[in-house]
């Protein structure tokens, strides 16, 4: 079986998921931890890396279980429960690793680390790979690209918010207000790649 076309498609889908179809800035999935953890660059990088790992692994594992367990048994309607269980297991694993090797980051992430379990960006990526009928290789590329796209968005937001920390912002726009405005501008910038980067 020639997998070269699939690798090419996976690469295209990965690049597209980072820029033109960024799961955060195009579909606005995962906004809660995005707004809550984008105050500090270090925390944003840690959470972003955790999301990349969880999203890539869970997309791959959920694809396998969906196509080799649920579909043969005609239990596709259980996919929501199964996807959430797999995501929760990986988040627990990541949480234990971060707590072991970086207690400072673990404390800084606080409640948002276990909340990756219900991060709709990760569940959304798993559902998109089913809806779009991606192959396994393309699914891995899509999961990786979606995670990287989310990572770039939150790190960029943390840097911008850090620069704005000492600036005068109207009281009514401070906090989530200015964050959502910046997110909208960032979304326009990322969507501007449409036509340059084409993907499925």
Which characteristics define this entry?
mainly alpha
Walkthrough of the structure:
It is globular, with a radius of gyration of 18 Å. The protein has one domain. It has 8 helices and no strands. Helices cover 69% and strands 0% of the residues. By secondary structure, the protein is an all-alpha fold. Helix 1 (4-18) runs parallel beside helix 7, helix 4 (79-101) packs across helix 6 and helix 6 packs antiparallel against helix 7 (136-164). The two termini are 22 Å apart.
Outline the secondary-structure elements:
Blueprint (H helix, E strand, L loop, with lengths): L3 H15 L12 H6 L4 H30 L8 H23 L1 H7 L10 H12 L4 H29 L11 H16 L9
Helix pairs in contact: 1-7, 3-4, 3-6, 3-7, 4-5, 4-6, 6-7, 7-8
| Tally of DSSP β-strands | 0
Number of helices: 8
- Helix content bin: 55-70%
Helix-strand category = mainly alpha
Taking pLDDT < 50 over at least 5 consecutive residues as the criterion, the unreliable ranges are: none
Cα shape: globular
Largest sheet: none
């Amino acid at each position: 079986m020639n997998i070269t076309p699939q690798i090419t498609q996976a690469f295209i889908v990965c690049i597209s998921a980072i820029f033109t179809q960024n799961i955060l800035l195009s579909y606005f999935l995962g906004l809660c931890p995005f707004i809550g953890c984008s105050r500090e660059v270090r925390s944003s990088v840690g959470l972003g890396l955790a999301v990349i790992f969880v999203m890539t692994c869970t997309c791959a594992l959920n694809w396998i279980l969906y196509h080799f367990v649920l579909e043969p048994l005609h239990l596709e309607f259980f996919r929501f429960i199964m996807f959430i269980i797999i995501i929760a297991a990986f988040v627990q694993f990541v949480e234990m690793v971060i707590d072991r090797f970086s207690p400072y980051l673990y404390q800084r992430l606080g409640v948002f680390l276990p909340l990756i379990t219900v991060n709709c960006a990760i569940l959304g990526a798993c559902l998109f790979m089913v809806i779009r009928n991606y192959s396994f290789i393309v699914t891995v590329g899509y999961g990786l690209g979606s995670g990287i796209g989310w990572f770039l968005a939150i790190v960029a937001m943390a840097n911008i918010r850090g620069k704005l920390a000492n600036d005068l912002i109207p009281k009514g726009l401070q906090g989530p207000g200015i964050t959502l405005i910046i997110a909208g501008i960032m979304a326009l910038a990322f969507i501007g790649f449409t036509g340059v980067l084409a993907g499925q």
